[in-house]
Amino acid sequence: MAEHRFGGIKIHHLYKIFGPNPTAYVDAVQKGLTKAELNEKHGHVLGLRDINVEIPSGRIQVIMGLSGSGKSTLIRHINRLIDPTAGEVLVDGVDVVKMNETELRTFRRQQTAMVFQKFALLPHRNVLENTIFGLEVQGMERAKAVDVAMRWLERVGLKGFEQRYPNQLSGGMQQRVGLARALSNDAPVLLMDEAYSALDPLIRTDMQTVLLDIQKEIKKTIVFITHDLDEALRLGDQIAILRDGEVIQQGTSQDIVLRPADDYIANFVKEVNRGRVIHVEAVMTPLHSGAAPVGLAIVAGTTVEEAVRMLSSAPEGDARVVSPSGETLGLVTFRQLASAMVNSQEGVAARHDSTLSVAL
Ligand SMILES: Nc1ncnc2c1ncn2[C@@H]1O[C@H](COP(=O)(O)OP(=O)(O)O)[C@@H](O)[C@H]1O
Ligand SMILES: [Mg+2]
After folding, report:
1. Tens-digit pLDDT profile for residues 13-50
2. Residue 176 domain-assigned?
3. Contact criterion met (CB below 8 Å) for 297 and 265
4. Residue of 19, 35, 199, 277 with fewest CB within 10 Å of its CB?
5. Which of 237, 254, 269 is the last residue of a domain?
6. What is the pTM of this model?
């Protein structure tokens, strides 16, 4: 793991306009010129408009949106594979946009690693040699590089496959190599652009589990791009939803499921298993003072689905929601939990703001 404390990523007022004379249109875009107007009247493409996203160190930020919404454009600004038309991208407090060539090269090599959808493995190198590639480029001593690579290959479940070639591996296994290679590099920022989008659903879920497991240990700042809502909700500590180059909502999984910013997002979240996303404290009746009642205690942060499971074996039919230190925050009934799992806003959204502030 990188030794210095990594401070996260801050993207402020980022604009990207594609075309021969992009800076000429920043003003107009800031004043409200739409993507369609910019395209029709001026022949330029609005890639990103006024993006503001702050990603704390060690968290997983998901960027979600349909194809063409600007996800790749956004993630490529973080290691400046794309230069912005306006705005700043602070990584660990340093503006990537202002770096010179040398600084940028060092930054990319030491601070960032990427995992791609098309695994980008070298076909004539075996698994070990593919994993080691970046370490070689960095000039790491061979024995040490093998050591590091073997450790990560084992961690992603590829022990015993070191000598195989990419064409002898399934898509899921190739993506594990891609992940091991990125992790070997030991950079604090991991950029994953639709890394799992080409995988079959079951393998994809496996890979999400691998990533979540490893993240508990490595605590990198991960920017994960997907067009899949279930993947976003499962992986994201924070989620930003893009449409036509704009962030139309950001928040936690629960924020997005409970309070979709508009019909477009509401439509996305309609089919979601709410019980896995919503936490008990969003459903409970808050208790501000008074004697703590007896009964089953459920810790804040527990999902509704899990709480239902706990409550169904409790005779009382209701439970206390407690903080991690054991302080009672509120009461929750089986009925409240059950209604929260149904696909409707009722009974949850109205109480959400006040209860969250109590619980968190
Ligand atoms: N180099 C480019 N030149 C012109 N337009 C581009 C370029 N790269 C991306 N775009 C446009 O920017 C928008 C966002 O693209 P992209 O970031 O690739 O979306 P996503 O990754 O969400 O599918 C699209 O309208 C796309 O056509
Ligand atoms: Mg893309």
Report:
1. 999 999 999 999 999 999 999 999 999 999 999 999 99
2. yes
3. no
4. 19
5. 269
6. 0.86
